[in-house]
Amino acid sequence: MNIKEFIVEKWMTNHENDCLYNLTDTCISPLTIKQIEEISQTDIIGELSQIKLDYGPITGSIRLKRAILSLYQQGDMENISITNGASSANEHVMKALLSSNDHIITFFPSYQQFYSYPEMLECKCDLIELKEENRWQTSVDEIVSHIVPETKMIIMNSPNNPTGTLLDKNFLLKLIDVCKERHIYILIDEIYQGLYEINSISDLYEYGISTSSLSKIYACAGLRLGWIKASKDVIQIIDKWRDYTLISTGMIDDYLASFILEHKELIIERSRKICEANKKILADYLKKEKRVSCIIPKDGTVSFLKYYLPIHSIQLCEGLQKEYGVFFVPGEAFGCDYHLRMTFTGSPEKTKKGLELLSKYFNKFNF
């Protein structure tokens, strides 16, 4: 197998631990167990001390599956499979359902896993470009133009990483009408949804597959707890793979994930306040800084800044971080130069300072 370098993840690994102003982490400022105790007024440490460190329920506890199902409009425990994060969820779906010579449709700029992993499975892959002049949106007609008899799956995330594009319910219903008669799966990574509402493909479509986790809006990336929601037939196939790949996610993660989702309203309220404060800072910044533009998304934690200087984004990001400690992911990591992935997840004070330093760095160039 020819394993392609995962450019975004490699960039994060090489740069995120050496910065003063992280303006590109997609996960809301992480919660400590102490903070979760304060939010919920529960002695979590005391309860954790009583947990036996065995495998626990192999496919996830009833408590956890019930908590996950509370995020959706329909389904039961046989529609859920537990994984180590959303990337593992996506991998299990693709590995279980795709084979060589299957055809998939996906998009860019987007998360590289959605096209590189199917290519490693020897699938044929059509990439549809999301264009900024169209507000990073695609159309159902454009998707239809790429469908062939071998098309097995359409893969996307909503909101999109890095653009923040959200697929509304009307778009999804039109796409479902096209895919249903052909039995085409629609896999949507919904990890950024939920700050306001969730339009889950698995609630709308029998061949719809939703993946998500606690990493982004729930501020608990360190738990590595994700899930798949799909038809019972699909979950049965995926659970066969789980026996080879992860067995269980462990008792501590299961307990903490259940607890977090049972108190989701309080945690989402915190996440929403952080995101809204940072969005306002960006909106105010864009009024003053004319060398940058951005379509600020309605939901999720990510956005894609466009800057108007003739300097490649990798060069810009490396110089900015070296000189001022400001960390972005370059648009080139998504195949889209002259852009920077910016997120709304950290301290608003650091976001404001980081953007000020971005402008200061721009001033160094006589363009």
Write structural notes for this entry:
Pfam families: Aminotran_1_2. GO terms for molecular function: catalytic activity; pyridoxal phosphate binding. It comes from Eggerthia catenaformis OT 569 = DSM 20559. This is Aminotransferase class I/classII large domain-containing protein. The chain is of the alpha/beta class and 367 residues long. It has 2 domains: 124 residues, Alpha-Beta Complex (Aspartate Aminotransferase, domain 1), CATH 3.90.1150.10; 210 residues, 3-Layer(aba) Sandwich (Aspartate Aminotransferase, domain 2), CATH 3.40.640. Helix content is 41%, strand content 16%. It contains 14 helices and 13 strands. A 7-stranded mixed β-sheet has the order 2-8-7-6-5-3-4, sandwiched between helices. The longest helix is centred in the C-terminal third of the chain and has 25 residues. It starts with 6 loop residues before the first helix and ends in a 5-residue tail after the last helix.
- CATH homologous superfamily of the largest domain - what is it? Type I PLP-dependent aspartate aminotransferase-like (Major domain)
Binned strand content: 15-25%
Helix content: 40-55%
The domain count comes to 2
H/E element sequence: HEHHHEHEHEHEHEHEEHHHEEHEEEH
| Poorly predicted ranges | none
What average pLDDT do the residues reach? 96
Question: What is the CATH class designation of the largest domain?
Answer: Alpha Beta
CATH hierarchy: architecture of the largest domain: 3-Layer(aba) Sandwich
Which radius of gyration do the C-alpha atoms yield? Answer: 21 Å
Across the major sheet, the strand order is: 2-8-7-6-5-3-4
Largest sheet: 7 strands, mixed
Q: Estimate the global geometry from the Cα principal axes.
A: globular
Per DSSP, the total helix count is 14
CATH domain topology of the largest domain: Aspartate Aminotransferase, domain 2
Amino- and carboxy-terminal Cα gap: 45 Å
Tally of extended strands?
Answer: 13
What structural class do the secondary elements suggest?
Answer: alpha/beta
InterPro entries: Aminotransferase_I/II_large (IPR004839), PyrdxlP-dep_Trfase (IPR015424), PyrdxlP-dep_Trfase_major (IPR015421), PyrdxlP-dep_Trfase_small (IPR015422)
Organism: Eggerthia catenaformis OT 569 = DSM 20559
Pfam families: Aminotran_1_2
Protein name: Aminotransferase class I/classII large domain-containing protein
